Known about the structure:
493 residues; 75% helix; globular; mainly alpha; 21 helices; Amino acid/polyamine transporter I
Amino acid sequence: xxxxxxxxxxxxxxxxxxxxxxxxxxxxxxxxxxxxxxxxxxxxxxxxxxxxxxxxxxxxxxxxxxxxxxxxxxxxxxxxxxxxxxxxxxxxxxxxxxxxxxxxxxxxxxxxxxxxxxxxxxxxxxxxxxxxxxxxxxxxxxxxxxxxxxxxxxxxxxxxxxxxxxxxxxxxxxxxxxxxxxxxxxxxxxxxxxxxxxxxxxxxxxxxxxxxxxxxxxxxxxxxxxxxxxxxxxxxxxxxxxxxxxxxxxxxxxxxxxxxxxxxxxxxxxxxxxxxxxxxxxxxxxxxxxxxxxxxxxxxxxxxxxxxxxxxxxxxxxxxxxxxxxxxxxxxxxxxxxxxxxxxxxxxxxxxxxxxxxxxxxxxxxxxxxxxxxxxxxxxxxxxxxxxxxxxxxxxxxxxxxxxxxxxxxxxxxxxxxxxxxxxxxxxxxxxxxxxxxxxxxxxxxxxxxxxxxxxxxxxxxxxxxxxxxxxxxxxxxxxxxxxxxxxxxxxx
Length: 493
Ligand code: PHE
């Protein structure tokens, strides 16, 4: 039996799926912090510039490629030249690796949802998170044992992902109708709650007070580009796969603009929820906002539980809502990463979807077991760092080179212009061929220099290799191996 590819039910379901993938945990725990660190309100300038010169153009590029070829990343690159198929697999593998830990974070959320009912994290959420919950070991090499309820949470997350993509775009199109509006509604509730708390104004002042002198620092511009790539889920093969399910006469450009701006808007909005709450926390503890400032897992599992403890009423309801927010934000980003791989494998081997879905989900679940050990948080941290900085930059650079120079931006531009509401001009080619790769290469070199002088987070060299460089190189080799297998119809495209 061969799998039929199918199409999105409507334009809205496609846009919702794209927004669902783009809007994830990063909007809440990454953007507001990066904005604050890099000039507050002034950061919006490099952010918007990065959106216009790299984010939206690359989104159009990925949509254009997927739509033109009607194939997910691996076979879409194989259509260009067989020898580039590996690049599609590499993008997909980087995404799947990201998903291995995204799933664990969601697993934590399930457990924290239950903790919210009676605020079980107690008076000291930091100790609770590290000791009582994670049973964090002394270092990355000290794996200890598996924490069974985290393993269970991880399994639950994978079960959800498996069922969300069970019928491909048909099921995804339905799920996102819920998982996109729900977190936005919850965010609105948190903003209203946040800004009506004492101290909120100070928090917002921290977030947004512009420091224009920062605009002269190159690292601020790098941060803006990095954030845009990560936030739009570009470079993981997701957008190529999603666009490959668009009917022939679909709009591309306008869809890319709508999705990117929605993502940017939701990031900006999240800042209000996060910083008003931080302002309140500073107010109640009598410290300053910089003392309570946090990001990443620390913000979600330590700072927010502390804030929730201090809420004047309905604390556990807000706890429940907060972890629901994280779950609904994360799930559609999570399954988009898996769908990119599943669609790629189905295109190549025409294997029934349930089988591919089952194999990919199970394999990634097994890899994820490492994060459920006592050293899980360290592994999560190092793999996240390497894959979202290097993995992503590497795919982005290669994508721009292969599509910009080997295939030619003109062909994609002409294809996109045929069906789009508004037309893109030469400026788009310039963004793809010069601006985006230049920024990415710069980012890549900068991070490499930093790493050489100062190994990431002080992890030992062997861990930097196993969780970082070595793993990335292994992914490249694995991608090449996958590309060498014959496709089902034996076609050497
Ligand atoms: N864009 C997501 C976020 O902001 C992260 C992500 C990246 C999800 C790539 C899927 C693919 O959290």
